[in-house]
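Q: Structure tokens for this one, please.
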Amino acid sequence: MPCDEIRPVAPERVLETRRLLLEPLTVAHAAGLYGPLLNRRLYDFVPQDPPATRRALEDRYLSLSARRSPDGSEAWLNWAARERATGGYVGTLEATVHGNRTAAIAYAVFVPYRRRGFAAEGCERVLAHLFGGFGGRGRDRHPQRRVHGARRVPGFRARLPPRKR
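A: Here is the predicted structure, written as tokens:
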């Protein structure tokens, strides 16, 4: 293993909050997430297009389910966020832990579930996982300024300590 390779910490663990289950993303999630991901309103402020086909989404999720980049320099942690009360998917969360020991998190909350605090709740849990598992010690905030409500969501970049060699 190269010295700069990052190993994901507990990549298959379901993360829990009061209202959410954050399930590690797998190909099987494409069936339940494809429809909500087609809503163009999700992409108003994100330079990305909806998945072209369900098969394309499955292929993307297959790549992400490796939990790290092909060269091993980044940990790729992705979750499907499911509401405990209904079992429905409310969105997705992701964290990329870079080789320089920083991490960036992102989220997408499906339109019917917006403005109910799911982004903040999910991001707080992801940050707790990053700080606990990777030993983070601080965070910087870089929200999308045009995304309504983004200022209420916890920090988007976590600074993680240098890895012990």
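A few notes: The first helix runs from residue 30 to 37. The CA atoms of residues 42 and 48 lie 9 Å apart.
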